Amino acid sequence: MASVDAPVMPRLTGEQVLAVLPQEMKKALSALQQQFGGPLYLAGGVVRDLLRKHIPVDIDLTVAAGASIRAERLAELLGGTFVSLKQEEDTARVVYHNMTVDFSAYRQETATIVEDLRCRDLTINALAIRLDTLLEASPELWPNPVVILDPSTGLADLQQGVLRVVHAESFSSDPLRLLRVFRFAGTLGYTVEHETMDLVRRQCSMIATAAAERIAHELDLIMSGSRAYATVALMAECGLLWHIIPDLATGIGMVQPESHHLDVWNHSLETLRQAERVLAEPDTFFPAAGEIMAAYLNSATRCLELKWAALLHDLGKPATHALQTDNGNRITFYRHDQVGSQMFDDLARGLRWSNEQRTRVGRLIAEHMRPFHLANLARADGLTLRAAIRMIRKNEEQLPGLFVLAMADSLAGQGVGCIKSMEAELAWLYRHLEKIRQLHIVPQKTVPPLLTGNDLIRELHLSPGPLFKRILDTVEERRMTGEVTDRATALNLAKNLVDRQMSDRNVNEG
């Protein structure tokens, strides 16, 4: 991994620890202690984040027992929302404004906080601070350093930027921890210690037993980070990625045409790297359109979906690979975009993605060759207004994203046969389409349609069906190109389309 995100403080004062809790939270926790008593610890990620000078959003509290009942009472005191987490474990959550407080009891096989910490995933998360004594302490003692419980050398690993499992059975206890190692590697920029990496290699097949929703959540956290490429490469290196997305592995070693310098798998990975570059500096790759791009990309969800599309855009290539022996052994991947979109849909359903996210990423994959087809058309014969409008109307909502994906795809394909001007052509084409959208499409959205379905029923005696949409879409398209300007012309076009449909049907039936 790259560099560590932030320096680590060698110690914490009581003042620094208490500063993360709003005044009403401290008051409520003090009342809770008066009612229930017993040790109360800040543990795990909250301590790690404090040491890294990051303000924690989530507060993890650990008690000997009775976590759920304490959480329920805290929600009452704060007017927050109580959420029961795992039925089989004594864990619960309180949501209060923009903060979440997770309560957990010592694990069943443990009797002390130290034993509980030794059952955690990573040493940097196996840290705790006793909170109840701090809440009770006199304010003049708050500037003093607090005792950090660290039974697994987590402080040293935090200082060195190292990710190390606490014990050899860590992944057996919870296979999702296999992914969490890489999530922390990506978000923190830490290095996975070699014995931990070896353990991942030996046990990565265990990930298949984790719940699909939990896997998807961890993957999204990885892909949302600024080091998605490096993290995915690390997951591939140790074999974990192939147990989650096995279709990617079939691209290893698969040679591509001369426009590519990498095999299918490495091209997919490189496209993700290039996508991160384009997302970080859209105005560099799309001069004069960077502002529009930046506005489109001002959405964490869109950026996440684009990274997924970049990694998976060629998922269909191995399944469509062919060698044309009668054409100089030319390598082809006909319809790989459509096949890949369907393969992605199967993957996304298996990971329980939302319908919306599955549809948007699937469309990006299905349409990812379109910008190249239009660029080739523009270079060879010129791009017609009708073809441009058709492209925009089909992909209008995702048009900027489609060109970000195409740009990354092109940058990742730098073989001897590549078109050297392709990136400049894509930038020009996107600018050109944006101008057409503003001049020909946007103005038409504020005026009534020239024809409606009722017109087709009344004037042409048609029944509602697929032909309806085709006629109305064609009329609107020709209106945008200026070929149809009034209702009479629109009706005449509709009649011609119906006549052509009837003629084609007669030919087929004959």
Automatic annotation (TrEMBL):
Residues 260-395 form the HD/PDEase domain. Its cofactor is Mg(2+). It comes from the Bacteria. The keyword Metal-binding applies. One of its GO terms (biological process) is tRNA processing. It holds the Pfam family PolyA_pol. Keywords: Magnesium, Metal-binding, Nucleotide-binding, Nucleotidyltransferase, RNA-binding, Transferase, tRNA processing, tRNA-binding. Transmembrane segments: none annotated. Gene3D superfamilies: Beta Polymerase, domain 2, cca-adding enzyme, domain 2. GO terms for molecular function: metal ion binding; nucleotide binding; nucleotidyltransferase activity; tRNA binding. Belongs to the tRNA nucleotidyltransferase/poly(A) polymerase family. This is HD domain-containing protein. It comes from Desulfobulbus oligotrophicus.
